[in-house]
Amino acid sequence: MVHMKALARGYVWWPGLDAEIEEWVRVCTLCQQARPEPPQATPQKWESPGKPWARVHIDFADPVQGQMFLIVVDAMSKWLEVILMKSTTSLALIHALRRLFVTHRLPDILVSDNGPEFTSQEFIQFLADNSIRQITSAPFHPASNGQAERMVRTAKEALGKMSEGDWNQRLGSFLSRQHTTPCSATGCSPAEMLMGRRLTTRLNQLHPDLNKEQSERNPPQPKVRMFEKGDKVFARNYTGGHLWVPGVVSEAIGTLMYAIQLADGRTWRCHIDQLRRRWAKDSPDSPTVEPSESVFQPPNLECGKEVAQRNHIGNR
C-alpha cells in the first residue's frame, strides 16, 4: 500500500486516493495468499472432566530404540499408561484399550489425532459400542491434542535414557516414578488424584507431606480470534498449489475449530491457526468506498492527460 500510494502521488491525485488504493490492495487475492503466517492462537484450555478417567488422550510414540509405544493419559489425574505395542493396527489398539478400561473404567471422551488406526471403521465401531465419544485434533495441527503430545515427549525422553533391564523393567521403573511424583499442574501425584492415596515406594518413609492444596491462578486470557458462519476466510492448503485457498465458514466446531466450505464444494475442518480472514469487495466488514468516488485503477501513462483533466489538477 505504501509503495503504491507513493508512486501514485508522483503523477496524479484525486479525492480519496489513499482509501481507494488501500481498498485495491486489501482485496487482492494474490496479495492475501502471499502474506506471512497469522499469529498462533493461545492454546485453549480443556474443560475439567470433573472425575478421573472421564476423558483420556491417546497417541502413538515414535519408535524408541526400535520399539513402538501407546501413550494413554487421564486428563484429570495425569495418570500415564505406556503400553509396548508389537503392532499399531486398529485391532491391536482395541485389545490394549480393553485391558485399560477393565482396570479403570470406560471413559466418556477419547481424544486422538487423525491417524488411520484412530479413524478406521473398526475402531469407530468399538467406541460406538461402548458409548465413547471421540474427538480428533485438526489435521496437521498436533497441538490440539497437546496433553498426549506432551506425555509422548516425556515418555520418549525418559525411556531413551534407560539401558538396564528389559522393557518391562524399564516401563515399570518409569511409570512408578510418574505415578508417585507430584504434578506441577495439580500439586498432587497422579495416584492421589486417581485413587485418593499415595503409592508405597522404597522412598515412602522419606517422602514429604504434599497434601497441600495449590491455589488456582487464573491469569487474564488474551483475546482469541473468532469467526462466524458466513465469514470469508483463507484456509491453509497442505495438498499442493497455493498455500492459502479461499473459502467460507460453514460451521463453528468448538471454540477453535471450524468447518470451511471451499469453492469446489469440498469441506475442510481447520483449526483457527490454519485460517485467516479474507477481504472481498462484497464483504460487509470490508472498508467501503463512497459511491461518488471511482474505484482505483493503475496509472496509465497513455491516458494521463484525461485522468488529470477529470480530477481538475492539470497536466504537470
From TrEMBL:
Region (Disordered) residue spans: 279-316
InterPro entries in the cross-refs: Integrase_cat-core (IPR001584), Integrase_H2C2 (IPR041588), Retrovirus_Pol_polyprotein (IPR050951), RNaseH-like_sf (IPR012337), RNaseH_sf (IPR036397)
Domain of life according to the entry: Eukaryota
Transmembrane segments: none
Record SUPFAM superfamilies: Ribonuclease H-like
Domain Integrase catalytic: 48-227
Pfam families cross-referenced by the UniProt entry: Integrase_H2C2, rve
Biased composition (Polar residues): 285-297
Descriptive protein name: Gypsy retrotransposon integrase-like protein 1
UniProt source species: Gekko japonicus
UniProt lineage: Eukaryota, Metazoa, Chordata, Craniata, Vertebrata
